[in-house]
Amino acid sequence: MDDEELLERCRRGDGAAFEALLLRHQSAFFSLALRILTNHEDAMDALQDSCIKAWRGIAEQRGGAFRSWMNSIVARTCVDRIRARRPTAPLEDEDDRVIALPDPQPGPELLALSRERVHAIEVALGRLSPDHRAVILMRDLSGLSYEDIAASLELPIGTVRSRLARARSALQAELLSLDPNILEAFA
Amino acid sequence: MATQHLDDEQLSAYIDRALARKDAAAIAVHLDGCADCASRLHLLRATSQAVASLPEEELPRPLDFGFLRDGASHVEELDSRGFVARVIHGRPPSWLPTMVAAAAVLALVATWVPRLVPARGGPSQATAGLAPATRPEGGGASAQSAPQGQSGGFGLERSAPGALSVVPSGAPTSSFPEAAQKTVLGPDGSTITLLANPPSATTGHPVQLLLRLVGGPRGTDLAPPGMEIFAGQGQSQLRLGGSEGTSRTVKSGEELDLTVEWSAGAIAGPPAPGTYSLIGRIFLKNSTVVEVPLTFTVSG
């Protein structure tokens, strides 16, 4: 059964269909939450919250792929959690950099080149402001459209566009500071 | 040779093909003649692809799907006019001992704000065909008994039997003038105050409902999905609002509002005359829920 069929069943209150959909895509949703929140437990909690939200709202879900819709909910939930965590610090502060990921000495498992690259990207993402991190992950990791991002974060599309551009530039600078050659692998 | 370099926003949108065709064509021409911008585009695209290359991560533990079978399960029923009526089954557990330590003040405000509509869209016209929209099977008697033209009286009903008790109302404390107020107490001493204003409206107008939560001195820990508003009639409940305040702690005096319009979502018209329960649910951590229905009447 494809996503659309399962989604239609969900709209009629079929919990088993909802569970099947989530199990099918849970790694993608968890990955998005993890990259935004940079913490496994927070990401797990956010994903659990998102599932409940999605179930409560699925009757009103109309059109669009389940994965994109759920990704939007996950991202919004993560952003809300960051706001709750730091209520006095506006997320819109573009200069605010949170170093949420430690940079441990690489263990043997990190010696593989691909693992090093992944680790570097995670570190660089962790140095971005939550706003920048969320928008770039929504676009480049989850593939959400500008319109979906704008709706999820309740921002004008123009703001999404400018914020995404700044986020990419900031991430590029962070990546190059970690490894001047890292982007050659993705060129 | 190009004289003005492209900015990051243009390059970023170009990567995403989020530009109008004419603008994208102009940028392509510029990139052909500008090695500097072409190099910047190259780096920006590599940055985007680096993020896209991140592998999916496995969950550290399985998701808990208990909510599908317990407090949040639902079935939908379509009434004869196609409105969705959602029946909520199950109740989260009653107050837990941990709440004793978290003394808090919750204020639940329910108010409706009639909006004037053009004269040609008067009440009788606006409600045509919508009257029984939320009326469940067997629930018509209650709805029909609502006095026409009466100012809606607000009454507090017990909710979560055994968990809450009703105490006499005090003076309104809300910024809403002339708000009706009643207070309920939980067994742990937590206080929930209900305010409602104003108590009158007629059909034919969109109705705005406001749920307000005021944090207590030691904070009120909300659990997902935080707060929700339902309109109930008989055994049917229509969810009017989404969730708000997810997983946050409400500080002393901080107020969270969830404002919804009756005309929003699945409910496509103004409320029909009748008696409804405005049901506010506030979800606290540890699966505790505070639920208080507030009875009100819609007059024609």
Task: Describe, in plain words, how this protein is organized in 3D.
The complex is a heterodimer of chains A (187) and B (300). In chain A, helix 1 (3-11) packs across helix 2, helix 2 crosses helix 4 and helix 5 (113-126) crosses helix 8. Chain A has helices spanning 3-11, 15-37, 40-57, 66-85, 113-126, 130-141, 146-153, 157-178. Chain A is mainly α and 187 residues long. Chain A contains 8 helices and no strands. Mean pLDDT of chain A is 81; it is low at 86-111. With 300 residues, chain B is an alpha+beta fold. Chain B has helices spanning 8-15, 21-33, 35-52, 98-101, 123-127, 140-144, and strands at 74-78, 84-88, 105-110, 155-156, 165-167, 180-185, 191-196, 208-214, 220-233, 236-239, 249-250, 255-261, 274-284, 288-298. In chain B, strands 4, 9, 10, 11, 13 and 14 form a 6-stranded antiparallel β-sheet that branches. Chain B has a 4-stranded mixed β-sheet with strand order 3-7-6-5, with no helix packed on it. Chain B has a two-stranded antiparallel ribbon with strand order 1-2. In chain B, helix 1 crosses helix 3. Residues 71-189, 192-200 and 263-268 of chain B have low confidence and may be disordered. The chains are: A mainly alpha (187), B alpha+beta (300). Chains A and B meet through helix 2, helix 3, helix 4, helix 5 and helix 6 of A and helix 1, helix 3, strand 1 and strand 9 of B.
How would you sum up the major sheet of chain B? 6 strands, antiparallel
Tell me, rounded to a whole number, the average pLDDT of chain B. Answer: 53
Helicity level of chain B = 10-25%
Beta percentage of chain A is under 5%
Oligomer: heterodimer
